[in-house]
Specification:
- The complex is a heterodimer of chains A (about 325) and B (about 280).
- Chain A has two domains: about 170 residues, Thiamin diphosphate (ThDP)-binding fold, Pyr/PP domains (Rossmann fold, 3-Layer(aba) Sandwich), CATH 3.40.50.970; about 130 residues, Rossmann fold, CATH 3.40.50.920.
- Chain A is about 40% helix and about 20% strand.
- A seven-stranded mixed beta sheet of chain A has the order 3-2-4-5-7-6-12, sandwiched between helices. In chain A, strands 9-11-10-13-14 form a five-stranded mixed beta sheet, sandwiched between helices. In chain A, strands 1-8 form a two-stranded antiparallel ribbon.
- In chain A, helix 4 runs parallel beside helix 6.
- By secondary structure, chain B is α/β, with parallel strands linked by helices.
- Chain B has one domain: Rossmann fold (3-Layer(aba) Sandwich), CATH 3.40.50.970.
- The radius of gyration of chain B is 17 Å and the shape is globular.
- The two termini of chain B are about 25 Å apart.
- The chains are: A alpha/beta (about 325), B alpha/beta (about 280).
Chain lengths: ~325, ~280
């Protein structure tokens, strides 16, 4: 098992803030909008440095999405910022018609996704956003795993023509990806080559997959670990190549089982290579208040859950 | 600006186009289309500075129009075609498989003249505000226009947008309400009353003007000219324009029933009998 280390834990939302700040300095067409959550989204630096290109829209997310769509007409590249729940479910029809169907170059940037939002509870813990967004034709869906990758993703999507959903979160997680790693939209990142099982993880579950991989090595199981930061378009080639070798797969994500990364992988495999698959994901349930760690344990999104899924899926080969 | 008589002739032809288009596919929305004909004809033929022969999505240094009540696509398509955005012949394809003239307007099929999809109501004001903000960022002094149904004002997003536009002094923007008082289920007053619309927009910080005769070409032009005088004065501008749903076809007026119904053969003949062919049917 390849060794991964980190010097500090950082929140992915701060990676977004840092990426946006850099874009403010390098790309004059980038503009940003926020619905009364500047601090939470870490958009302060962009706002301070580019007051003319920053739009505070207040607690009016539908209007924010519409304004963002309009801003593209004339060449601006709008980045909207609010919590994932209000970035997707609350404004689904606005995204569908004014952004996706209209083919507008809007970047919908969503923080506090999933259970790790923590104590605020289920009203804010959206676990359906990946599904909602990936169903929209031509919507690009990205869920990076740590600070560095989120920063790189933020910078990369400015150069991508078309609507993007960028999902990140609130808790601090190990910042282990190299700061200079190029972010290639739609390209899986091979974290560890293995032969017995493929673990495909996204977002906060990527580090847990690495932890699981280390334990599996101790148990004599060789796990191939893939970081899927782009759920759509999915890197079909990387996944099929891995499955050809390992013959079984575990998917891991902080999202509903319905509609998430696991769904996308299952669809791919059922069409090309029907393969035993286990899902580490929330099983048709809302979340609740609690600390992020408590919630990840209770809703079975932890390292141990990946291990259990691996053991189960290997037996099904 | 073309003279009033020419614009009136064009309006009559556009009205013929509208009833023929919806008749041909037995679907579509003639009522609101007929009611907004004079407005759109005026807007695209003299009021706006625009470039039909060389359409670009960005529309730099052009005035831009956003249709928020997308169901009145027949009038929109006819006006766009007749001022040169695409061939008038293409009106034949309205609502037919593989057409660029979808039931509700879209950018998806790259129809020149259309810059946003609309149909799901309430979204166009936000989009127009965004486009107005980009004009300001680009130091482009052109004007943004939008049109909304009165029933559409029941959508909450409109009021989010209205609040934003005044708070942020979006003063390069003229919105118009097609105030015909009718919607699918009946009179707006009975479905969900808008109350005092002028007072509402004034309370929201808009400069409000009223066009009392939205189906009289001179009045429409006068209203838009007056609206323009408030550009750059620190407030978004609202043109509350009274119209008659179905204007120009007697049996379609005075009722909400032709909001989304197409005439049959006999009804078409009757409508065409009231609308002189002035510029040649498509």
């Amino acid at each position: 098992m390849k060794k991964y280390t980190y010097t500090e834990k950082k929140d992915t939302r701060s990676g977004f803030g840092a990426g946006l700040q850099q874009l403010g300095q390098t790309n004059p067409n980038v503009v940003a909008l926020c619905a009364d959550l500047i601090g939470s989204l870490k958009m302060d630096a962009f706002k301070a440095e580019n007051p003319d290109r920053f739009f505070q829209v207040g607690i009016a997310e539908a209007n924010m999405i519409g304004i963002a769509a309009g801003l593209t007409i004339g060449g601006k590249i709008p980045f909207t910022g609010t919590f994932a729940n209000f970035s997707t479910g609350r404004v689904y029809d606005q995204i569908r018609q004014s952004v996706a169907y209209s083919g507008k170059n809007v970047k919908i940037c969503a923080s506090h996704a999933g259970l790790t939002l923590g104590e605020d509870g289920a009203t804010h813990q959206i676990l359906e956003d990946i599904g909602l967004m990936k169903m929209l034709p031509h919507m690009c869906v990205i869920n990076p795993c740590d600070y560095n990758q989120t920063k790189a993703a933020t910078i990369a999507i400015a150069d991508y023509e078309g609507p993007v959903y960028l999902r990140f979160g609130r808790p601090t997680v190990p910042n282990f990806t190299p700061a200079d790693q190029k972010f290639e939209i739609g390209k899986a990142v091979m974290l560890n080559e293995g032969t017995d099982v493929t673990i495909i993880a996204t977002g906060h579950l990527v580090w847990k997959a690495i932890e699981a991989g280390e334990k599996l090595t101790e148990q004599g199981i060789s796990a191939e670990i893939i970081n899927i930061h782009t759920i759509k378009p999915l890197d079909n080639e990387a996944i099929l190549k891995s499955i050809a070798k390992t013959k079984c797969v575990v998917t891991a994500e902080e999202h509903q089982m319905n509609g998430g990364l696991g769904d996308s992988v299952a669809q791919l495999l059922s069409r090309h290579t029907p393969t035993p698959q286990e899902f580490v994901a929330v099983d048709d349930s809302f979340g609740e208040s609690g600390t992020p760690d408590e919630l990840m344990t209770k809703y079975k999104l932890d390292t141990i859950d990946i291990l259990n899924a691996v053991h189960k899926v290997i037996k099904r080969k | 600006m073309a003279d009033i008589l020419q614009l009136q002739k064009l309006s009559t032809q556009v009205r013929r186009d509208i009833v023929r288009m919806v008749h041909a596919v037995s679907s579509g929305h003639p009522g609101g289309s007929l009611g907004c004909t004079d407005f759109l004809v005026a807007l695209y033929n003299g009021v706006m500075t625009h470039n039909p022969k060389n359409f670009t999505m960005d529309g730099k240094n052009e005035d831009l129009f956003f249709l928020s009540n997308g169901h009145i696509s027949p009038v929109y398509y006819s006006v766009l075609a007749r001022c040169g955005y695409f061939p008038v012949e293409e009106l034949k394809t309205f609502r037919r498989l593989n057409t660029r003239l979808q039931g509700h307007p879209t950018t998806h099929d790259h129809l020149p003249g259309v810059r946003i999809a609309s149909g799901s109501l309430g979204q166009g004001m936000s989009v127009a505000i965004g486009a107005a903000l980009t004009k300001k960022l680009n130091k482009d002094n052109s004007i943004i226009y939008s049109l909304h149904g009165d029933g559409e004002l029941q959508e909450g997003q409109i009021w989010e947008a209205a609040l934003y536009a005044s708070a942020n002094k979006v003063d390069n923007y003229i919105a118009t309400i097609d105030y015909n008082g009718r919607q699918i289920d009946g009179d707006v007053e009975n479905v969900l009353s808008l109350g005092n619309l002028k007072a509402k927009f004034e309370a929201f910080g808009w400069q409000v003007i009223e066009t009392e005769k939205g189906n009289d070409m001179a009045s429409v032009i006068e209203g838009l000219a007056k609206a323009k005088t408030f550009i750059g004065k620190g407030k978004p501008i609202m043109n509350i324009m009274k119209t008659e749903m179905g204007a120009g076809v007697d049996y379609m007026m005075g009722t909400h029933k032709w909001h989304g119904s197409a005439p049959n053969d006999e009804q078409l003949a009757k409508a065409l009998g009231q609308l002189e062919e002035t510029l040649g049917d498509y």
